[in-house]
UniProtKB/TrEMBL annotation:
PANTHER family on file: ATP SYNTHASE MITOCHONDRIAL F1 COMPLEX ASSEMBLY FACTOR 1, CHAPERONE ATP11
Organism superkingdom: Eukaryota
Assigned keywords, A-Z: Mitochondrion, Transit peptide
Keyword Cytoplasm recorded: no
Localization per Swiss-Prot or TrEMBL: Mitochondrion
GO cellular component, one term: mitochondrion
Originating organism: Phanerochaete carnosa (strain HHB-10118-sp)
Protein name: Uncharacterized protein
GO biological process, one term: mitochondrial proton-transporting ATP synthase complex assembly
UniProt entry tagged with the keyword Cytoplasm: no
Family: Belongs to the ATP11 family.
Length: 176
């Protein structure tokens, strides 16, 4: 997933909304812009290490962060847009224990914004946060470069004229 993210550091993930929101009875979607950032490799944990010992070169993968921002917010404010969800992959134990820890943080509301479910404490509800995390995996976690998610991700970056929104919505459907 990290190698695909390094090559394709941004994408869009649709989150389905109630079918009653459109006049034609079609399912509506809210689109989120996602972007990856990498922060360097953490030092490997050492038991009984000297407090002031020089850190050794790490063989762990880089720590990565994924920001999810509503596309409308991103278009309006660009780099000043507030991400609604931040996922951080902590790789400290990747080599020693074979584990990568994930921390997800939903941005608290400032009081004016209200999440889709009416919860005014956060900008995003937990269900939408889970859908965004699963959507990210659908498009970045693939074994075959010819998988639908991989094709859409590549088209988004390498050939935007061939990127199909209909294919994105079809592939992002979580009901199937």
């Amino acid at each position: 997933m990290a190698s695909a993210a390094a090559k394709y550091p941004s994408f869009v993930i649709p989150v389905p909304r109630d079918a009653s929101q459109t006049a034609e009875g079609q399912r509506a979607y809210e689109v989120y812009f996602m972007e990856w950032a990498f922060h360097g490799s953490p030092a490997e944990p050492i038991a009984n290490a000297e407090l002031f010992q020089e850190p050794q070169t790490s063989t762990n993968p880089q720590i990565s962060t994924v920001l999810f921002t509503p596309l409308q917010e991103y278009k309006l404010r660009n780099s000043f847009a507030t991400p609604y969800l931040v996922l951080t992959y902590h790789t400290d134990l990747a080599r020693s224990h074979g584990v990568v820890l994930l921390r997800g943080e939903i941005t608290p509301s400032s009081g004016a914004a209200v999440a889709a479910n009416g919860d005014s404490r956060y900008l995003l509800n937990q269900e939408d946060a889970q859908l965004l995390a699963m959507g990210m995996q659908k498009f970045y976690l693939w074994k075959d470069e010819h998988a639908d998610g991989a094709k859409l991700l590549k088209a988004f970056h390498e050939n935007p004229a061939e990127f199909e929104w209909e294919g994105l919505l079809k592939h992002a459907d979580f009901s199937a």
